[in-house]
Amino acid sequence: MAHAMTVPESGHAPRPRKAPMPPVLRAFLWAAIGFLLLNTFVIAVDPFRGHPFVTGPSVVFGWVGAAIGWLLGIGLYDAVLLPLMGFPTRWQERQQGWRRYWEFATDHKVIGLQYMMFAVGGFLIAGGIAMLMRYELMTPYLTIFHYPSNYLTAVGIHGTLMMFSFATVFMIGGLGNYFVPLMIGARETVLSKLSGIGVWLVPVGILTVLFSPLLGEWSTGWRGYEPLAGQDANGILFYYLGVLALTMSSLIVALNLVATVMFRRAPGLTWGRLPLFVWGQVTVNLLMLIWFPEIQTTFVMALLDKVVPLNFFTATGSPLTYLMLFWLFGHPEVYIIAVPAFAIWNEIIPVMAQKSLFGRQWAVIGLVFVMMLSGLVWAHHMFTNLRNSEILPFSFFTEMISIPTGFAYMSAIGTLWKSKVRLNTPMLWILMSMFNFLIGGLTGVFLADPIVNLQLHDTFWVVGHFHYTIIGSMVFSGFGAIYYWLPKLSGRTFNETWGKTLAIITFLAFNLTFSQFFLLGLHGMNRWVPAYPAYLQPMNFEVSIFAFILGAAFLGNILYIGYCWRNGAQAGENPWGAKTPEWFTSSPAPRYNFPVQPEIVGSLYLYGEGTKVPVVTTALGELAATSRATQDPQFDWHDYAPDGGGVTS
Amino acid sequence: MTNAPEQRRSAALTPANYRAVRFSMLFFIATQIVPFVVLFEAKYLYDGSYVSPQADQGFGVAGAVLMALSAWVAWQALRARTGPDARERVATRLKVAAGLGLLAMLTVIYQWGLRYASPQGRFGEMYYVISGADMVYAVVGLIMVGIAILRNARQDMAPERFWTAEASVYFWVYVALAWIASWVVVFLL
Ligand code: HEM
Ligand SMILES: [Cu+2]
After folding, report:
1. Is the omega angle on the peptide bond into residue A227 within 30 degrees of 0, that is, cis?
2. Distance (Å, whole) CA A65 – CA A31
3. Which of A5, A69, A96, A328 is deepest in the core (most CB within 10 A)?
């Protein structure tokens, strides 16, 4: 049935001779137009507008217009909508060169790198703001921030960008997009176009949060607490909108990865053989698919509270409800960040030890149970707002969650036990991550105790605790993963001496900074204060010095990785002797990942004598789940139509 | 033209691709139950089962019935995809469904115009927010159905190209279900 091929998009127009405007530029332009259109419209029809050209309601609609304009400009219009509606399009995907990272792309590896790129951008911005905060805290009075609310806005932007534009985005949008398809032997993801659009919501979110002070300060921190936000100027609007864009982007990633793992696994890659990293990603993707819509709804309600205004979370509404709704999402969010890190530990350790992963099932069960328990502990963030009887169950579940977390440690330590582990740079980062997270977890057990909590709540103890858990888990494991996969990502490797030196400096600077946060907290240093009693100054001053060193160390690592990416020594095809499928193709992998469909014939985590190579690349044809049309010019859907077309499957 | 197969690949669906995207779409729709759960819980929290006596029951019923009809017609579009004049039959059904949906939305806009409940009141704020959510979802659904109609006009009805229409119908049916559930929660319970 040849008519199936006579549709407009199969004969595409030749690329125009005059170079079109770079997509990013066009996106900015269309975003500006979208903003002006909707903003002006709202100003024109809003009966309560008053004087200014930009009001709360108008800026919300203007922002929606800008976001839509941005996405249309970046590629939604000519790469997605036109072909979708059956119009011819000029769009063609660029296959090489740096420019493809600044355009709409459908290759999951390009998209993954785009996510990493934006995430690192968010990290550097938020990290820079952290440096300003630490600079302020070197003195007990206000210096660079003129009002406490300025400092609080900085804290809010730091926390928001770190959580929503760096932690989740780097681990799941970045590493997940890049490596999950490779590790399951897939040639592409299921929703590759949607995913290519979604990544461009990240810069929208970062810029929105970063420029929120244009609308005025907001004092709520990364949680947008109501009714506190009620006293703020309109800056909080951009917090809600920015986070909406960032969570939407991550939601798309989650949906795409779950579908890809469901439908694109290589032949022989049963659930029992699924790589741990993929298990980690899938479990947190499920968490995201449940809780991100929940927090998005909450934020829309809070937004309406502000702009209409309504009374959901104000003093006459139910402020506690906002806290509940936020932490229902908020605690799973911290596991969304940490679980991929646990998975990375157990991905890298067996490789570096060349020893079979100890208790593989338990490692997986641990991940899954952490995921399930994470929905039962939210109220430990609000013990000070609860009655005793309400506190106890949450205290109990919080302490219980350390058990499945322990499984991740158990597998890691069991694998390391009596092994001749190669103590190279990736391994070093992983061990450091395990140490840091342990400190973070142990200090968390203190916080889960109601009586101690009431004392420590709102102090720097808490700040120390969550930086140990978050930086300890995701930043250290993230660096470990990047050093580990650098040969895969770039085909190049790094120098061990440099790598280890940088790792050790970072580790020392991190611990010297944040371990003192606990002491500061015990001595009475509060969170969210730019001014504090003078007796705390010496310690704060010296903590800040270490914080600057830590900032420089992170920057040094990023620069060094960038340098090796381009100039490092050529790496072998499988430099660590790993067994997972991503290493069974060239580095970096070609457009469709594997020249022929690999097949998985054994466990990916068994090492030692008598174990076989688990991945073979001689499988004929493709797995049913990958697109036949690419390979078979005679392909016709009708032969395979699900209802009555002939083939059942 | 080295890219021609690549181009075609991006538009055509294989059976397995079809299953994968359908799974994704249905899963996505399932996640969109969560916002309504949050809103319905909020409704229960803030004003229990209170229904303002000013609320116009007639319009409430009219909107829900129109959406139910619309969803049913849209579903029929899926069943009309085979046969000699499939293209026309699908097109009419999608257009009728969209028209009914628009009518349902008009009933809400008209009620909003009546301003019978203040957004500052407990009933009013939940009423506006829940019906507003219905409207947002309906707008998105209408855009999807609109795309399917446009695409349908310039494509043959090969199944691998029918997915767009199918996806828009799935979503539209969900919009209708959410709408009816909202009606039950706001006007009846
Ligand atoms: C570069 C090293 C970092 C330093 C020196 C640093 C320092 C700080 C400081 C001083 C505060 C605020 C304390 C206060 O309440 O006054 C803070 C808050 C916070 N930080 Fe960091 N931070 C760093 C990295 C990170 C990273 C990597 C993350 C997460 C991925 C993160 C997440 C947060 C969050 C969520 C808050 C809470 C914001 C709020 O209270 O709403 N930080 N940080
Ligand atoms: Cu928590």
Report:
1. yes
2. 7
3. A69
Residues 95-154 of B with CB under 8 A from A: 119-120, 125, 129, 147, 150-151, 153-154
Closest to A618 in 3D by CA, of A597, A593, A601, A592: A597
Minimum-distance CB partner of B18 among A4, A84, A642: A642
What does the block give as tokens for B88?
């026309």
Q: By three-state DSSP, how is residue A173 classified?
A: helix
R_g of chain B, CA atoms, integer Å: 19
Query: What are the tens digits of pLDDT across the range A515-552?
Result: 999 999 999 999 999 999 999 999 999 999 999 999 99
Residue B26 in contact with partner chain A when CB distance is under 8 A: no
Q: At what angle do helices B57-79 and B159-183 cross, to 10 degrees?
A: 160
Q: Map tokens 């449940």 to a residue.
A: A290
Say how far apart CA B38 and CA A388 lie, in whole Å.
Answer: 26
Report all structural domains of chain B as residue ranges with CATH numbers, in order of start: 16-188 (1.20.120.80)
Go through the domains of chain A in sequence order and give each one's CATH number.
101-570 (1.20.210.10), 590-640 (no CATH)
Q: How many CA atoms lie within 13 A of A248 on its CB side?
A: 21
Separation in Å, CA A553 to CA A186, A468, A518? 36, 17, 22
User: Does any ligand 1 atom lie closer than 6 A to the CB of residue A550?
Assistant: yes
Query: Helices (DSSP H) in A73-176: which residue ranges?
Result: 82-85, 108-136, 148-160, 168
Quick check: A229 pLDDT over 90? no
Q: Is residue A158 within 6 Å of ligand 1 at its C-beta?
A: yes
Tell me how far the alpha carbon of residue A260 is from its chain's centroid.
18
Q: What is the pLDDT of residues A286-344, one digit of tens each?
A: 999 999 999 999 999 999 988 888 888 988 888 889 999 999 999 999 999 999 999 99
* Lowest-confidence pick of A415-419, A441-445, B8-12: B8-12
Degrees (nearest 5) of the Cα angle A475, A481, A487?
Answer: 140
Separation CA A178–CA A593 (nearest Å): 11
Summarize pLDDT for B125-170 with one digit per residue, the tens: 899 999 999 999 999 999 999 998 888 877 766 666 788 889 999 9
Contact A156, A239 (CB under 8 A): yes
Nearest to A255 by CA among A278, A211, A205, A289: A289
Structure-token pair, residue A340? 């991929």
